[in-house]
Amino acid sequence: MSHSHPSRKTEVAITIALWCLLALPMARAALEAQMITHMAVQIPLLALAGARLARGLRPFEPRWLERADWRGLCGLTLVLFTMAYWMLPRSLDSALADPRVELLKFVSVPLLLGMPLGSSWRRLPALARFFTIANFISMLGTMGGLYLTAPTRLCVFYVLDQQLLAGKTLIAAAVGLTLFFFLAAFFGLMRPAAVRRESTEMAEAG
Amino acid sequence: MLREFLLLLGGIVAAGVASLDQATEGFKVVTSEQARRLAVERAPRTVPGVALVDQHGAPFSLSDYRGEPVLIEFIYTSCPTLCTVLGDDFRRIEDAVQPRHDREKLALLSISFDIDRDGPPQLELYGERFGAKAPGWRVAVPSRAGLTTLLRAFGVVVLRDGFGGFIHNDALYVVDRAGRLVRIMDPESSPRLIEEALRSAS
């Protein structure tokens, strides 16, 4: 455990570096020019920054949170609400039109989505993790289908072609993730982090 | 432990529902286009008196329409698809609504946002294509400064399509006799629906 402190510092440093990188005007312009990179690259990377921050700050996590966030349910609820908010096409439009909403995105996605996910995930029972993953995959597929069949543009800042590309990419991601977890579950070829961490934690506890 | 859990969960759910409620205007809209239409219906806004030039080169102001309702659309004359449909829609609306309306009381206005390419000659050609006759149906273009004000006031977002054309959120705009934008409607709306909107605007 003695080597864990520098690595935690590294986690925090990586988080801050990633966040600053994403906040660069050039990176913002590049990722927000396309609907798919805005929703499937920039936002997930912001969430990833938050998740790593949660890991880096774990020693400082208040004791009461461990008890109040029973089985990670509170954290998961917060994650779902934040995700729902940023899945609204209106939110993406507003982030492009209003710098205050853009700032809200850069603050809320790491702190209210990535961080609670990183902090609560290990508290979730194994079945709840798989339930969450399975639901997330089917949500991606449903969203992709909606984007492909929507008769009108959902965002005023993105043309229809980008919406169709986003739809196709989301469906491809859903298929890819399904395949990944299928292989992991039935053949143990690529053991997902969820399972790996579960077993190491069990080993540590035992 | 249970008390802390319930307090935290309750707080998260309350804050989450409140922010979704705010973002969807009370669970009514998910897109900014829907939000724009709802906002106008809830709180009509006075349109700015922007200076325009019509298809005959005659200058006029948007505030000249005070006293009569006006139906507005945004176009660009070199548009190969959407604006052609919009032009046809306007033609259809004029044919359907005009005869039953007092002739002096319905004004149509097509505004081009392509200020670089659309001048009176292009506007005139567009007008002839769809049978637009000023002053009942003007095809007009604002100045560069006026355009920004106009697009912002109506909530129109224009994107370049990369092929020399534009993509924009197409709609019909009803401005009432007091000069307030009161309704934003689908271009495909039936003439009956548009007539109703115009009647309530006059």
Give me the side-by-side strand order of the main sheet of chain B.
Answer: 1-10-9-4-5-6-2-3
The whole-number mean of residue pLDDT values of chain B reads 87
Radius of gyration of chain B: 20 Å
Give the helix proportion of chain B (percent range).
40-55%
Q: How would you characterize the largest beta sheet of chain B?
A: 8 strands, mixed
> N-to-C SSE series of chain A?
HHHHHHHHHH
- Number of helical segments of chain A? 10
Note the gap between the termini of chain B: 63 Å
What structural class is derived from the secondary structure elements of chain B? alpha+beta
Strand content of chain B: 15-25%
| Low-confidence sequence ranges of chain A | none
Number of strands of chain A: 0
Our measurement of the CA-to-CA distance between the termini of chain A, rounded to an integer number of angstroms, reads: 17 Å
Query: Regarding quaternary structure, how should these chains be classified?
Result: heterodimer
Shape of chain A: globular
- Which percent range describes the beta-strand content of chain A? under 5%
Give start-end ranges of low-pLDDT stretches of chain B. none
How many DSSP helices of chain B?
6
Tell me how many strands of chain B there are.
Answer: 10
Helix content of chain A: over 70%
**Largest sheet of chain A, described in full?**
none
What do you see in this structure?
- The complex is a heterodimer of chains A (206) and B (202).
- By secondary structure, chain A is mainly α.
- Chain A is 81% helix and 0% strand.
- In chain A, 33% of the residues are buried.
- Chain B has 202 residues and is of the alpha+beta class.
- Helices cover 41% and strands 21% of the residues of chain B.
- In chain B, α4 (120-130) links the parallel β5 and β6.
- In chain B, α3 (82-97) crosses α6.
- The termini of chain B are far apart.
- The model of chain B has no long low-confidence stretch (mean pLDDT 87).
- At the A-B interface, α4, α5 and α6 of A face α1 and α2 of B.
